[in-house]
Amino acid sequence: MLDATVLIIDDDDDILLSARLFLKQQVKQVITCKSPREINILLSKNEVDIILLDMNYQKGASDGREGLYWLEHILSIDKDHIVILMTAFGNVELAVKAIKKGATDFILKPWENEKLFATISAASKLRESTRKVKKLEKIHSSLQKDLTRGFENIVGEADGIKQLQVTLFKVAPTDANVLILGENGTGKQVFAHEIHRNSQRKNQVFMHVDLGSLNENLFESELFGYTKGAFTDAKEDKPGRFELADGGTIFLDEIGNLSLPLQAKLLSVLQNRTVIRLGESRERKVNVRLITATNMPLNEMVAKNTFRQDLLFRINTVELLLPPLRKRGTDILLLANHFMQVFSSKYHKEICKLSHKAEDLLLTYKWPGNVRELQHVLERAVIMSDGNEISEEDLQLSPQRFAQNNAIPDEMALGDMEKMMVQKAIDKHKGNISKAAAELGLTRAALYRRIEKFGI
Q1: What is the largest CA-CA distance in the chain?
Q2: Sigma-54 factor interaction domain spans which residues (predicted)?
């Protein structure tokens, strides 16, 4: 039996009954309809794979004009619809015209059942092939930035990192939902990708979605997709990130930034494992591995009723807490040397070591931006260095920044530290939100959410 849904449109009850009785033994689902005027409703409620469309509906008509009109209408909804035209009047010229207008095939009535099944079978294979190509095209388009960015393996020998690696390799082969916590720049995305790379889904899609930079009005259309005409600019059907990640892993970064209404919508998708595109009512099943991350204290937010407890239960089957760089001791030098080698190769330089003073400087700095800040510092140092060694001066870490960073107590809560960093950035740039957001590595929208959160 073919895994296909066939829609048959014909005004002859005998034809509909005959086709239904035969095809229901050959395909997954058969839908019949007497009038092509019901096409829009039927296509919006059902995922139709093949359409058998009669050419004539008015009494006495034999020129096929109606069939060509409805063929064009169906293809205007989705140019990839598979349409097989049916007529009782054999006309080679009409058949050629129909194929040119986008019909997949042409069949004469009354048909031989073997001929009908062969036509349906070929159309089903074409539909499946087209579907795969479209999905690959959408994945390529949506993931272009992620594919060119690249990822680093986890570097570190600190006890906390070793324990995380042990947990990671236990969790990765499963489909358990993972919540990754940690300050900005601690490597949450790197850990998420390592989980995927060591999972059973490693040959499938890794879909990274930055919820912090996603406009609230675009949340549903980006994550769940939309149909043509769902809103003004919806000129074609578009699958959402969940559909594109089907079979793979979806990584929802900055999940703590979601508003309560959006949390409810996400929870519904995670519970039901289905998505509904904007503009239609049909549920589509999705099979994804979920990884989420945030630098926000979700348990405190639950207590304050700003984050749903049921959503927290859903996303943190396993929880990973990444330590800040200032608590990783000599891992700072391991990472610094790693980045030095990466950027020396990138910029075609022969830099082989850090000076002793540079190493001391790196170890005494508090790294409020964590691994991400260290990476930027080493890239700049490699660019500025004139010899084969990175000096203290090449690092460009000013005494003023040291004084500010040393004032940060290690035991300070993540929320308090984040508030202090936001306040400092705003004060430094005299209220210029764009400049403050750029320094913090945030979008303007994400910074505004933090300003509202901390009452700044």
Answers
A1: 95
A2: 154-383
